[in-house]
Design goal:
A hairpin with a 2-residue loop joins strand 4 and strand 5. The protein has 15 helices and 20 strands. Strands 8-7-16-17-18-15-19 form a seven-stranded mixed beta sheet, sandwiched between helices. The protein has a five-stranded parallel beta sheet with strand order 10-3-2-14-20, with helices on one face. By secondary structure, the chain is α/β, with parallel strands linked by helices. It folds into three domains: 194 residues, FAD/NAD(P)-binding domain (3-Layer(bba) Sandwich), CATH 3.50.50.60; 117 residues, no CATH class; 125 residues, Guanine Nucleotide Dissociation Inhibitor, domain 2. The chain is globular, with a radius of gyration of 22 Å. GO terms for molecular function: oxidoreductase activity. This is Amine oxidase domain-containing protein. InterPro entries: Amino_oxidase (IPR002937), CrtISO-like (IPR045892), FAD/NAD-bd_sf (IPR036188).
């Protein structure tokens, strides 16, 4: 272990956007950083992969976070880079009961659209006014309160630096999205169905169990600037990889961390699947809390067993990749939510909709001219798919065929599109791809039963061991995990700044 090559100022476990954010910021400050990733590409659930000449996203996904007070804009500003991206508008189209609801970015246009489809004009205006207000405050406040949830007195005192007027949103932590809509006077049951499926893809929970404090940003993300990354989200992650490597850091893929052991001198030894060991005084884990129990021991293992036990409810996903002939309309939205009726129910699928992302027309880095790449995603129960045993392959094929059938019915243009490739993945696949325990993706679902303060924090009780990613505060989504990378960075800097060497 005296070999200098195996010693790093910081080792980041997992190359998701949370870990890559923290690694980039520490690299900028002179830390010698090593990022270890079990998969063959970085990015985790915010990435892309190649298959038979085409580039697929890890899942059907949208990208925001570059507007004022949002974490990806801050990351660009802090690193002095510009992530290659293209703005898209509208953000999404929702297909519900034969109607197409367009999620316009412009707030007034969206409110008029909602009124057009759901009626109750005054009530809709009241609800969305609250949602925009709460969302804007949450982005502003979360972007400057990096020591939340508070662990020590100084963390609590730092909260008093906020504008007292922003505290007016706190009561919305105790009111669900559904309760807030009811209080606004909305009675249209189709609107509540719309809310449930929109929240499920952004907050991992439905309107009756999502606090409005979190639900407002989840519902209004289409009203901020949405982006498309040419060539796939992997290109965004690789820009951060290049930044780290240019500053003396390293990112090793296909090198799974198999053990994290604490040494007497308050340093850590990281053991990997390549039979290598790395020594560091600072470990930042970007892998889910459920996985940490498997790679730790003693009191550290006990801590993560307790933390993981808080979150027994989490989603898996049934996803598909499709390559289809490009017969779609020129200005067709790149993101679609297809609502399913009771007659459309698919065994193994637990959401009431399919979410579809389509590659941009002319993006030849993802597909050859004349073809488009589609990613489809739906929520799925992990226990169901892991418990199928001999029926797994049969049901996977049946589910895939059912989804393609519904796509032909509900996605404009897809009926006439020749399919050149189609394949699917279940939570079992996801556990093998990105090594998340039981294939749980999307983070921890929001819940009315969990306090704002009852989140796994970035800092653990063990000196030098920190956390980021979608199973710690603030939770889901690319902006959320990027914010977690900032939060862990500031905690590290407050306690370990003197550990950076001069390189």
């Amino acid at each position: 272990m005296n070999n200098r090559q195996n010693e790093y100022d910081a080792v980041i476990v997992g190359a998701g956007m949370g870990g890559m954010t923290a690694a980039s910021l520490l690299s900028r400050d002179g830390y010698r950083v090593l990022v270890l990733e079990a998969s063959h590409v970085p990015g985790g659930c915010s990435s892309s992969y190649y298959r038979k000449g085409f580039v697929f996203e890890s899942g059907a996904t949208t990208l925001i976070g570059f507007d004022d007070h949002q974490p990806l804009k801050k990351l660009e500003d802090e690193l002095g880079i510009t992530i290659k991206k293209e703005a898209i508008d509208p953000s999404m189209q929702v297909h519900l009961n034969g109607r197409v609801i367009t999620r316009w970015r412009d707030r007034e246009m969206w409110v008029k659209e909602a009124i057009n489809h759901f009626g109750e004009a005054a009530e809709q205006r009241s609800f969305w006014k609250k949602a925009f207000y709460v969302s804007d405050v949450v982005w502003k406040v979360s972007g400057k309160n990096h020591f939340f949830p508070p662990l020590k007195k100084r963390d609590w005192f730092s909260l008093f630096k906020n504008d007292p007027r922003d505290a007016l949103v706190l009561p919305y932590a105790a009111s669900s999205v559904r309760e807030t809509a009811v209080q606004s006077g909305i009675s249209n049951h189709q609107f509540y169905r719309f809310l449930d499926e929109q929240l499920l893809i952004s907050a991992q929970s439905r309107s009756d169990d999502t606090p409005f404090l979190f639900g407002a940003p989840a519902l209004t993300y289409t009203n901020y600037t949405n982006y498309y990354v040419p060539g796939g989200l992997l290109n965004m992650v690789q820009q951060l990889q290049e930044y780290i490597e240019q500053r003396g850091g390293a990112l090793n893929v296909k090198e799974k961390v198999t053990g994290i052991s604490r040494n007497r001198e308050d340093t850590y030894t990281i053991h990997t699947s390549k039979n290598k060991q790395y020594r560091t005084g600072l470990v930042i884990s970007n892998i889910p809390v459920w996985n940490m129990e498997e790679v730790t021991s003693g009191s550290i293992r006990d801590y993560f067993k307790q933390e993981a036990g808080k979150y027994t409810r989490a989603w898996g996903a049934f996803t598909m990749g499709v390559v289809a002939e490009d017969v779609f309309e020129e200005n067709m939205s790149l993101h679609h939510q297809l609502h399913l009726s009771q007659e459309d129910a698919i065994e193994g699928i637990d959401s009431g909709s399919l979410f579809v992302s389509i590659s941009r027309k002319g993006d030849t880095d993802r597909s050859e001219e004349g073809k488009r790449v589609l990613n489809i995603s739906a929520h799925a129960g992990t226990d169901f798919w892991f418990g199928l045993n001999g029926n797994y392959d049969r049901l996977k094929q049946k589910t895939e065929e059912s989804i393609l059938g519904l796509m032909r019915e509900k996605l404009p243009g897809f009926t006439n599109a020749k399919i050149h490739m189609a394949f699917s993945a279940t939570p079992v696949s996801w556990s093998n791809w990105v090594y998340r325990k039981k294939g749980r993706v999307g983070g921890i679902p929001q819940s009315m039963s969990r306090s704002l303060l009852d989140w796994t924090p970035n800092e653990t009780p063990f000196g030098g061991l920190y956390l980021c990613g979608d199973t710690v505060y603030p939770g889901q989504g690319i902006p959320g995990v990027t914010l977690s990378g900032f939060n862990v960075y500031y905690r590290v800097k407050r306690k370990h700044n003197n550990r950076a060497r001069n390189h």
